[in-house]
Specification:
176 residues, Mitochondrial carrier fold, elongated, Mitochondrial S-adenosylmethionine carrier protein, 6 helices, mainly alpha
């Protein structure tokens, strides 16, 4: 992968992810509170709908950038030679690249989500305070609570989405 492609993937992926995360943040807060063991209203209801947004803002760009850089680099490496470089193997290349992208991105996404969701469910607390409480009570391992299940949730979506996306990019570009 060339330097220009790398930078384009990094910046475009980071910006796209940050825009999506920040735009949809209030819906994410409502979902988190609806799923809270405390119940929706005790978890904050519609008050403090942006509780936890600093965590999302800080983690969003690097999370999305990590995914897209890993995806594009892996796709490029797999296309360089060997059996996976063949045109008929393109869907497999895209599946492998997307899966590795999710594994890497979750290294950033999961700690961000842990802090964000805990802050959303306790709107009287700040993001920074929730980070400190998690580290004090559970250590760094607490920030990665749910890493495995998150990866297992994300990979099936990527296995379908990215080969389809790549296929549709080619088909649409031929129509234009």
């Amino acid at each position: 992968m060339e330097r220009q492609e790398f930078i384009a993937s990094l910046v475009a992926g980071g910006c796209a992810g940050m825009c999506v995360d920040l735009t949809l943040f209030p819906l994410d807060t409502i979902k988190t509170r609806l799923q809270s063991q405390q119940g929706f209203y005790k978890a904050g209801g519609f008050r403090g709908i942006y509780a936890g947004v600093p965590s999302a803002a800080v983690g969003s760009f690097p999370n999305a950038a990590a995914f897209f850089v890993t995806y594009d680099c892996t796709k490029s490496l797999l296309s360089a030679g060997g059996e996976l470089a063949a045109p008929h193997a393109a869907p497999v290349r895209h599946m492998l690249a997307a899966s590795l992208g999710e594994i890497v991105a979750c290294l950033i996404r999961v700690p961000t989500e842990v802090v964000k969701q805990r802050t959303q469910a306790s709107p009287s607390s700040t993001t920074y305070r929730m980070l400190l409480v998690t580290l004090r009570e559970e250590g760094v391992r607490g920030l990665y609570r749910g890493y495995g299940s998150t990866v297992l949730r994300e990979i099936p979506f990527s296995l379908v989405q990215f080969p389809l996306w790549e296929y549709l990019k080619v088909r649409v570009s031929k129509c234009l």
